[in-house]
Amino acid sequence: MSHLGELALRAYVRLLPKRPAGQSASPEAYFVWQYETSEKIFATFPEFDFRNRRILELGCGIGGRAAWLARNGAREVVGIDISIEDVRNATQIKNKLYPDLKNVSYYPCKEDEELTELGEFDVVLLLDSIEHVVSPLKVLRLAKKYVKSGGRVYFSTIGWFHHAGSHLGIPFATVFFSDETLLNFVRWKVSRPDYQPTDWDSDPPIARWDSVYDLRDRPGEYLNKITVRQLKKLVHYAPYRRGRVIMIGFRSPRLRWLNPLRHIPIVSEVFHSAVVGMLET
């Protein structure tokens, strides 16, 4: 069965359009993508008031979303991340693209470390990051230490069975295939002569996939495999005054007819566009 799955995935990838030669993902391209998609992302957050607010983004990565907030009305935005390289790239790219943007800054930190010198914030954000931490509950506890009384913590993520849950670019991969099948497929893909490495690949690209047998250990991007059901329990038991989970539907006109399914237990694990959590102190 595993072998048949690998053959199916190989056939699928051969049907995909080839990326133009010389075109590869880069930190700057990812920063720009984050920046340009931020308005739609934040429009899904209930009662999200960021203008004239002091905002912290935990797990800011390359920093594009923090820059968008700073440029569109936030009083001050601080981004922190455990990746020193991402923080360095975020600062350099922001200075290159928006040299006059002075109300956003980025800092490196260790996992579970509280940078007390940063003070308190009106809003704390975890954007596309809660699925990448070992303990989501610890991260929400950390977020509470940063947010002032009466403030809010928001997170945006996807469940493990979401069509992009594997982070491998294969729709619904976690629904239909085992980790072993997916990882064997990845090793085949990055070993092909026509594979175009990205800025995040090792040299050779297959090297970083050696000895990986579980997608939790996806190199460079840990995945905790959190489900929608687990996210709802997380918000229910997190140490906040109250919390809500909002299932976001699909925007595409050809998929909107599926949106009622996001409210049905079990089925909602697959049929959702995103999951937004709002917690109040």
Give the name of the CATH superfamily of the domain at 27-161 and 223-280: Vaccinia Virus protein VP39
Strand sequence of the main sheet, in spatial order? 3-2-1-4-5-7-6
Secondary-structure-based class equals: alpha/beta
State the order of secondary-structure elements, H for helix, E for strand. HHEHEHEEHEHHHEE
Please sum up the structure shown.
The protein is an alpha/beta fold.
Notes on the protein architecture:
- The chain has 281 residues and is of the alpha/beta class.
- The protein has a domain at 27-161 and 223-280: Rossmann fold, CATH 3.40.50.150.
- It contains 8 helices and 7 strands.
- It has helices spanning 2-15, 27-42, 64-71, 84-97, 136-146, 173-176, 179-191, 228-237, and strands spanning 54-58, 76-81, 104-108, 121-127, 147-157, 242-248, 274-280.
- It has a 7-stranded mixed β-sheet with strand order 3-2-1-4-5-7-6, sandwiched between helices.
- Helix 1 (2-15) crosses helix 7 (179-191).
- The longest helix is centred in the first third of the chain and has 16 residues, at 27-42.
Q: How is this fold's topology laid out?
A:
Blueprint: H1 2-15, H2 27-42, E1 54-58, H3 64-71, E2 76-81, H4 84-97, E3 104-108, E4 121-127, H5 136-146, E5 147-157, H6 173-176, H7 179-191, H8 228-237, E6 242-248, E7 274-280
Parallel strand pairs: 1-2, 1-4, 2-3, 4-5
Antiparallel strand pairs: 5-7, 6-7
Helix pairs in contact: 1-7, 2-3
